Amino acid sequence: MSIKNHEMSMLWASLGRIKEIGTVKRNIVFLHIAFWLVFFAFKFADYSTNIGYSRAATLVVVPNTFNIVAAYIHYFFLLPVLLQSKWPHYFLILLGMLAIIIWTRGYTESIFLGEIFQTNYYNTWTTGRILSMLFGTGSFILFIAMLRFTVDRFVLEGQKKALENEKLNAELNYLKAQINPHFLFNTLHNLNYLTQVKSEQASEVIIKLSNIMRYMIYESNKTYVALGREINYIRDYLDLESIRLNNAFSLKFNIDNIDPETQIAPLLLIPLVENAFKHGVSDRQPDSKIEISLKCDKKSLHFQVVNSLKSNQLAEEAESGFGLRNLKHRLSLSYPGAHSLQIEKTDKEFIADLSLKL
Predict the structure, then answer these.
(1) In this predicted model, what pLDDT tens digit does every residue of 334-354 receive, in sequence order?
(2) CA 250, CA 289: separation in Å to the nearest integer?
(3) Is residue 270 packed enough to be buried (19+ CB in 10 Å), middle (13-18) or exposed (0-12)?
(4) CB atoms closer than 10 angstroms to residue 271
(5) Which end of the chain has the least Cβ crowding within 10 Å, N or C?
(6) The dihedral of CA 186, 190, 195, 199: what is its sign?
(7) The pairing of beta strand 250-256 with beta strand 289-296
(8) Contact at 8 Å (CB) between 177 and 326?
(9) Rounded to two decimals, what is the model's pTM?
């Protein structure tokens, strides 16, 4: 598949997901509207047989207006607080909201319902009345919340399946992109030369190339791999590129504070390294440099690659490759909302800065 066709297929897939999300949201809105219409119609029909249409409408609309307000304040504003596990904040806000809703509802009912039904029930504050209002409002709050959890569960399952399929396709395309024909050709060419001159480096190249291919074929299809194995893969790649290039260049790979057993998605770091070699190192440019740093703890990972730019090369070209576009797509799949990829360009340097929340 050409890059253009690949981009077009991804565009159509994205448009399909947007249309799907819009349809789901419309269905949820219709579900809520249908519930309230059925509820109001049922209560109105029940009351109107005994107290008439006008008073029945007032009896249904006045208290349930406050139930609707309370239910959807909870739905849109309090549930997100609860889902973030901020229990103290949630209960404090909930109690405050219920106090305001109950007081306002009681006062409004005394104005509209007290005169219509000629009873002191709506004009006095008793424990029974307060508990009745709390129970009614609380029931609707709970029901609407459960409706959200139920719908979200179905939506989440659908999104999970779509995400798994999309992630699989993205990873397969990424693997194809990783097998760089130019890199393999140059490595094999150098290997042939080293074999002819019976250099001791020949066996080293074979071993490292074998390690790289084994990792790409057997490890990269896993959801997560140990950070230590990813680092070994990068080291082998750096060694092969160093052997391939004729002129010496400045190469630094600094690793600080890492746990090699930390789990990360495979092949997320190497595209930045490949991009640095592609755009930053040349046999015709003796002052080339690549500086790589990796820091990681239990909660986050920080990976930075700084490379010089080849002479007469625009900095924008350094981020125009398929590898970086593919990386951005994989990050959105593997670490949604938990990653940051910052690109900084100067006349002489290209800086790629990747952060992950683990």
Answers:
(1) 888 899 999 998 888 899 999
(2) 4
(3) buried
(4) 24
(5) N
(6) negative
(7) parallel
(8) yes
(9) 0.52
